[in-house]
Amino acid sequence: MEGLFSLDETVALLVLGIGAAMILGNIVALVRGRRQESEHLYVGRAWFLLLTGVLITVWSIVSLGR
Questions:
Q1: 54 domain residue, yes or no
Q2: How many domains does the chain have?
């Protein structure tokens, strides 16, 4: 669909935002967790979600490039 509000592009941009938020949020959690020696931080989960965010972000950028 072409036009001002392309559904494909809108969905790709929303997914890009979610992926970028996952990246930024988990980086902040990892940095704060190391500084404060937090016992409530699940490091493995944070790294998994960070890498998932990278995958989602790259996927959406590739989708926007088509």
A1: yes
A2: 1
